[in-house]
Amino acid sequence: MATVLITGAAARLGRAIAEELHRDHQVIVHYRHSSQAAEALVETLNQRRPDSATAVQSELASADDCQRLAEAALECFGEVSVLVNNASAFYPTPIGDASEQQWGELMGSNLKAPFFLSQALTPALADANGCIVNLADIHADKPMPSHTIYSAAKAGLVMMTKSLARELAPRVRVNAVAPGAILWPEQASEGYNKEQILERIPMQRSGDPSDIARTVRFLACDAPYITGQIIAVDGGRSLNM
Fold first, then answer.
1. Which InterPro entries does the UniProt entry name for this protein (predicted)?
2. Structural domain range at position 51
């Protein structure tokens, strides 16, 4: 059975992706600080199918962290055929108040870690004729007010997706999913007025985490001739921004 490593999989979109791919994958749940949520998810998945899920902790702050996570993931089930780069920091950084520490955290979680983890797992993914699915953002193309660093990091992730797709073909496919209004931020921030956003979405509603999870499944399992693509799952919001 194929094995998937999902970063930031203890909650929110990562959890939905883990539950969806667990239908026919062994699942490695990566977490940073959410140990209780990660272990609870693993317990739930193992109740559905014994010995099919495990959790691994990593800060993902450095290339060495990424290398260690890759090695730990390979020790879990002996192989990794799907990597889902989902872990992400998100908060506003208005010009005049942004710090170098914020730059490092936002660029690190959204761009640096996905690159170095992809690099560390490339040999295993190539052996498995596997794939990488990155979680991008529609704001990689349309900037969000006061979120310059985050938007720039996601834009870099989009280009990384396309570049790796070219470099790793034909053995490894690399694609990305760009969510729109799916889960609202846990803390209110400029650029996220819920009512105004919903008014401008052609589908007139927010999406569901399952919309993202099913798209990740499609790219991982049912798209053998698709690579280097960014699929917006946004109810048409990017048409009206």
1. NAD(P)-bd_dom_sf (IPR036291), Sc_DH/Rdtase_CS (IPR020904), SDR_fam (IPR002347)
2. 3-240
